[in-house]
DNA sequence: CCCTCGCTAGTCAAGTTTGACTACTCACCC
DNA sequence: GGGTGAGTAGTCAAACTTGACTAGCGAGGG
């Protein structure tokens, strides 16, 4: 699962009605250009694709008010909202170890009711446990792990990663169950979009050491 | 950086001379179909691309001896070996959090001299530290982390992940410095390819719970 | 007044990835 | 003696991603 559809659907949904550049700007505001493959080309492509599939509705709009080419505004459809929630649930549940998907999922987690978020995360820990078990079972040859040589280190990495993620997931579950944050249906939501007149403090284009490429 | 070029170059190199299906089979033997995007199409595409770029040399070969379409055999060129080592070094050094690249890099790490492997991994830990520092610095607003709301959990995830990886990397460094495994120039290397007449114990096509998709 | 710079908004070609599909042979069963 | 199932080897179109490019407007300097 690629993160871009989730990100774009989520961005359009939060905005209510947005054109490509706004989505692009929101994603940059969230730092998504650093931890996901949300490049301009991908964003515009995703918007068109989602519109073609009926998940977004495209309004043809007159030339921009502030210079630049004419722009298309998008709104999420009912079908799109469904797909958005489906993607979000899947991203939270499944252990697929891609940073961008996980980050996006956390960013949107408060769009779900608190109880469901917790349930999905618990499901996630179960998935991690299963994966861990299947790795240790499946890849240890009968004649002892020494047969694997340095290849055993790959297994070791997986186990290590799985454990770290299980621990982190459990911590998040605890915090959410402890009452942290504001979830769907609990009053004024946290809003993470830029208004039209607001400058983007993170849109510096500056890179940090170790950024994913 | 995508893992596929590294995997394909490494596979061809270990084989000496290999056709696409052999590479595909080796990768499956290594479990790469489960933790990387090494699907048939990608493998054949990579082979052609690498050949076009002079990193592999393509031998046109007569129709297969055992049925199936005619096959092309590939050998790695000097340039290809250089690129292979460059990719391997980069994969070991840079903290780019993609499982497939990391796993591939560990699989091939013994192609480097022991001292260099350690040096690269130490460089990696430095990179992780820097990334960690830049995350904590850059994303904590002046008015306290509470302003971030649940978005702070994304940062938390990154920190957690970075710490886990630093710990794992340090463990690996310790084991290598402690004399584990057999590196380049230290005698009979560990061989991870299938001979032509050998069956592949992992080519069952069976999936495990939690597999990355 | 003109020229460049930066911002807005988006397009495009080239490259990559995906998943389904083809075509051929051999072994085996009935 | 024919069918069929498994294995061998690879192709292909469609989708996606990437990075570079375009084109219009306003601000500011000289």
Automatic annotation (TrEMBL), chains A, B:
Pfam families: PadR (PF03551). It comes from the Bacteria. PANTHER family: PADR-FAMILY TRANSCRIPTIONAL REGULATOR, TRANSCRIPTIONAL REGULATOR RV3488. SUPFAM superfamilies: Winged helix' DNA-binding domain (SSF46785). It comes from Streptomyces prunicolor. This is PadR family transcriptional regulator. Residues 8-84 form the Transcription regulator PadR N-terminal domain. InterPro entries: Metal_resp_DNA-bind_regulator (IPR052509), Tscrpt_reg_PadR_N (IPR005149), WH-like_DNA-bd_sf (IPR036388), WH_DNA-bd_sf (IPR036390).
């Amino acid at each position: 699962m690629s993160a871009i559809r989730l990100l774009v659907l989520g961005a359009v949904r939060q905005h209510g009605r947005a054109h490509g550049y706004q989505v692009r700007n929101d994603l940059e505001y969230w730092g998504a250009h650093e931890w996901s493959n949300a490049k301009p080309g991908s964003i515009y492509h995703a918007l068109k694709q989602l519109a073609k599939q009926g998940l977004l509705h495209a309004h043809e709009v007159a030339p921009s008010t502030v210079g630049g080419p004419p722009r298309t505004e998008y709104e999420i459809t009912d079908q799109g909202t469904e797909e958005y929630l489906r993607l979000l649930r899947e991203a939270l549940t499944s252990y697929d170890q891609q940073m961008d998907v996980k980050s996006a999922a956390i960013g949107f987690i408060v769009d779900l009711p608190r109880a469901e978020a917790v349930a999905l995360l618990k499901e996630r820990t179960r998935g991690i446990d299963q994966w861990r078990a299947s790795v240790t079972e499946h890849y240890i040859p009968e004649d002892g792990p020494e047969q694997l040589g340095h290849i055993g280190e790959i297994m070791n990495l997986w186990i290590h990663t799985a454990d770290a993620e299980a621990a982190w997931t459990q911590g998040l579950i605890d915090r959410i169950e402890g009452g942290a944050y504001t979830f769907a249906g609990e009053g004024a939501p946290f809003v993470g979009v830029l208004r039209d007149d607001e400058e983007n403090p993170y849109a510096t284009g500056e890179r940090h050491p170790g950024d994913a490429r």
